[in-house]
Batch of 2 targets.
Target 1
Amino acid sequence: CVLCGRTDDCPEKYGEKRTYVEYNLTVHYYCLLMSSGIWQRGEEDEGVDGFLITDIEKEVKRAAKLKCNICKRKGASIGCVAPKCKRSYHFPCGLQRECIFQFMEDFSSYCWEHRPVQEFMDKEPRGASQCTICLDLVEHLPVYTVLKSPCCKNAWFHRECLQYQALSAGIFFFRCTVCNNKDKFQKEMLRMGIHIPEKDASWELEENAYQDLLHCYQHCDVKRCLCKKGRDYNEPDSKWEIKRCQYCGSRGTHLACSSMKSWEQNWECVECRSIFAKSGKYSKRKRHALATSETTDGTTCLLEEPPPKSPRQSSGSPRSFLLQSPKIMCQNLSPCSHLEQPASNRVTMSLSPVMSNRNWSLRHKHLRQQRREVCNILKELKVQVKTKTTRLNINAENIWSSALKGFRQRIFSPTNTIEVNFSNCKNRSKTNASAASKHHFFQVLMLHLQNSSLFEGSSGKNLSLDFQAVKENLYFEAGKMIAVSLVHGGPPPGFFSKTLFNCLVYGPENVKPALEDVADVDVAQTIKMIKYADSLSSLQSTLQDCCEFLTGAGCLRPVTALCDKNMLVNDILIYHVIKRITLPLESFRQGLKTLGVLEKMQMHPDLFSSILCHKPERLSVETVYNLFTIHSSSDVNKVEGADFWMGYLQDVASGESAVTLEDILLFVTGSCYIPSVGFDPEPTIKFLHIRYPIGNRLLNCLELPITKTYQQFKNKMELTIRNTLRVERE
């Protein structure tokens, strides 16, 4: 190298070593960047990355007069920028002497005496912890070789580990490995001399790097396969669909080969069944519980579309009305769940019809008011969204992996307007497809997240512990997707448990979990046995049986009195529901910070719980009627059609029509739900002298025909809406 005089070729330390035969020139890239007397005066393709050859030759002559304060040889091209400091040195010598080189702005260099240092609080512990990159111990000392995260209190790294991580991840993916913070973390690391190259991550540049993740196991492994087309044949939605083992996912069976009547049934392979049988934990109860709660051992394939937890119900199904009955509502609102009460104490509570209906009405009126206020808050956040668009190409057969790829692409920005293009959808008009596709994408994405292995529980979901998901940073992506969905017109998630919501808003240290937050049936059963032990001897016997579990949870302690069980139960709940998922929770919180959503949640917790912890109510005549504003150009007093519109909505709600209220909303806006942020523009109605109704999704405007009779109006509505939606679905 003409600047440092060394022949070493070590790109990680000195940058790429480049040789230009025509100029008789060899130089390390970092030596050139850090030299004090040279600037990039050319374009990127001129000279050496913008450094002109003539300027390099002048810098070599200037450096030849300067002696290195470290090795005492000539050619020291780098000087300390501290005032009155006259030290000069070669780049490799500076590294050895622990100088700091800042790869930003003016590319300043600081000698060993004037280099910037990190501030350490006197109260900070001076012990040791794991470097989260190499997993070796790193001592908490204010030395050159150790760096502390600016965004996490207990995150410490080896300087060398961080430098290798930065070179691999590049500027787009280099971030804190604990909390996922990017801006604050990168700013501090650049100040402390970590070089973050402006390039894509190394794993993104590798061809077909993720190809293996796109394949799901599809092979029938039962002893006698009944399928005539072979063990590898798989036909979705039929008896020849392949179901994978719910535990390991690496064995499969055709539904018919294992006498399974539907996809909803769970199946485990012989190997997993034998393992559970030997451990003594295999029971029918466990098998039934897993129908409503996914396994959390990290083996579930996150790139496949998981089955829903229960059969899909139409909005007008009997089950939907059942959920609104006073008796069931009272059970849902009961402070103690069936898991928490002993069998002898379980009583079905019911109120008088008048009281229950009144409570139901007041509760939902309050929720509607809260959701209107949330809508206004989200509209404030939506101001950040620019007109510049980002297109997401989504494979309808694999929503999760294509969504993940889209959100992780370098050009994706949550402040850009999002357009969604489904790769297997054809023959749609560009304008209408854009609105409908985006609404449908967010709806399916939220459903996938709800049923994925990132969450556990039946109705109110908590975060699960999936090590593979932690490694792939999927909890952060899930939080980011939910935040983007809320601001960009997606549906309210509605599946958070109160415990998860409180952890996000108030911090996990201020939350007390309950027994219903425990999704694992075996753990719940253990806690119940401890909680309802009626004597000291039975309590001690129970603790002896679950000694291994308590040791792993860090809750094993001597019990001398029966009242000690309450504190023990509380400790187990805090460990299993909160402490166990500390990393996923922090990562999920960082994702929710996207577009300022988490900050608004913490400012207005009561309002946001209405959309995050409660399912959206079914569309009603009143909701749909109030959603639309009759356009001022329509003379409502003279147009009898306004009454026809109200009458038609009542017929649809009562089941006297072939379409649903959701179909009407989809026809007009491209969405079958009301987004949390509302519609933009707000839906309107026009009464015009036209033959058939028109749904203008660009303006969210429903143009209705003026007819002489209600029957004519109804027939035209039915025909147009049914045919339009049928063509779109095909």
Target 2
Amino acid sequence: VMQCSASLDVLFLLDGSYSIGKGSFERSKHFAGKLCDALDIRPDRVRVGMVQFSSTPHLEFPLDSYLTKQEVKDRIKRIAFRGGSTETGRALKYVLRKGFPGGRNSSVPEVLIIISDGKSQGSTGMPAMQVKERHVTVFAVGIKFPRWEELHVLASEPTDQHVFFAGDADDAANGLYSTLTGSVCSATAPGCKVESHPCERRTLETVKELAGNYVCWKGSQQPNAVQASLCPVYTWKRVLIKHPSRCFRTVCPEPCDSQPCQNGGTCVPEGLDKYHCLCPVGYGGDIHCAPKLSLECGVDLLFLLDSSAGVTLEGFLRYKAFLKRFLQAVMGRDSPMNVGVAQYDNNVRIPIEVGQHKDAFSFMKSIDALNFGGGGTLTGRALRYIAQHGFRSTPVFADMQDDLPRVVVLLTDSKSQDPVAEAAKYARDRDLLLIGVGSSFVRAELAEVTGNPKHTIVYSDPQDLFNRIPELQRRICSVDSPEGCQAQSLDLTFAVDASAGVGLENFLHMRDFVRNSHLHFTINRDVTQIALVVYGSKPHTVFALDTHTSNSAFLQAIDQVPFLGDSASAGSALLHIYGDVMTVQKGTRPGVNKVVVVLTNGGGMEGAAAPAQQLRDNGILVFVIVIGDAQRDILLKVAGSPNYLVHISSYEELEYYRDLIIERICEEAKSPVNLCKPNPCMNQGICVLGPGSYRCECHGWEGPHCENRVLRGDSPRSAVLPPPSHVQHGSSGWQRFSRASWHTKRH
């Protein structure tokens, strides 16, 4: 973004002596390329040339040789290290004698950039002064561990704006731009300004250090006399020396400085004035990660607030704030829902009847008027009362029943002082959907109330309560909707960490997670296919996608899953899935969404990012579910996006997240599918896309997917595929069929 754009001649003097060495010389070249990024290189603006110096100077290319920035950077990369002594003074005299080769003869400002370690073997003071007297601006850039005193002699004044360190290329490029902006370049971008801040220069110096006093023998003036004495002994060692300095850098306001992303979203800057937000699951209603919460489902909704002494006044006020934030997000003018609020302690009250308010403003005023009770916690009594009286005020007509689903959301953080199971069953038997929201302290009781872990929402701390708003919205709108992906075609592979780091007991928790996931799917060849891979140091396929064609067969096979107990390598497991599981030979179906779900404790993920990307490049989503503490940055590379990374604090809580995770998978499985990803053609066949279809071009093979070798001189042909509904699996693999049509997308 920051480029010096002006008519300017720039000549690099690149130290290629033996004191630099070949490695540091390559870093100098890289640094010179970085400095070019800060220059607007083109014939009528900035021109660049380069001289390499050691024992003698050598012109690498004049200023009029290359016309674009990329050409200059490519040429710099090809420069070869020459070696020799460090004759900086001779190089400066070359510039005094030759000028800027290919330049515009001082008709434009001239800038000399010297990249060196400052350890010249000759005098540099006089030629440096003569160069500067010709109105050449001189920058000195230290490489390796430079001799800063000499670099300050070489550079123009003020030296703290003309001396840089190549070790931090981006910082030095900013410094060059900042200094040039104050003289020859156009003004900085709007909002940007040059600021001064303390910095330091580092170098290695050899210092003399007293090691101690040791006995030595000295002669005396007397004949044949030698005296014993203590003599100092010194050692020499290299010490890192830091020199305080000041740096001038251009600072621009970042668009993310104002923290525009809400609800835990991550701001990613795009240039000087643009950004985008990476939003957590459930957010993204606008560019700032507002909740995706418009309650488009029509329900009669009653919030039941615990206002007993057990939740305390602070907890009750938190519930009121939660209610207001929820309703602000979901309650619009055309919302099809009716909402009310009840509260309970020893007694039950319904201060806001269901459907009483149709606008958010009047609703907020009624919520503000709610008072804390402070009595006992009689949750069972409250549930029975609500089942009998909570929805009596819902608008009905004489000849017409109100058939909207009825939902009760219980907000509590205190264990009930009366039984809840029978009262909750009474409410559910009257067709009320009960949703429980509370802390982990009341998790078991909430599960008893709701009768279904899916309808239990547990928050970890008071602030986390507000993060559960999107999940609550989904639970409310899930009433009467089909669960899971039962109506969607999906090829799903679970990769389960069976290493010693997980342990047998925790492995069984993950196995149960996979087993219970079958409740959300219809397992057969036409709808959902599931494969299971367990892995330690090596992966093991428990069953392939096309092995089991019913939910009952899937359940029987799960109990045979082996625990491996060695080290973990998620990378080898994902490579195995890519090459041996998610393939046509092993049952994947073209035109069907494909997902891999990795269950792990976060160990053995070091080499997993590349195969995970390979899966994504072939149209296969990768979800990572990590249990316990793990390095988020590595896991994020494997998942590819925060949207596909789920972190769970303990194995015991894994089961409570199953429904949410499966819902997320089903939501993503609705995305469009590339029929050629992964490649359905076997034996190096080439997949060719058509409009809503594909065909395989075979070489030395034939058949719909190039599965049959050409025999007895048959010429290889392209297999043209019919719709997938006509593709049948036989005992010998893919059966052959006519080549009359293309293979079309599964609907």
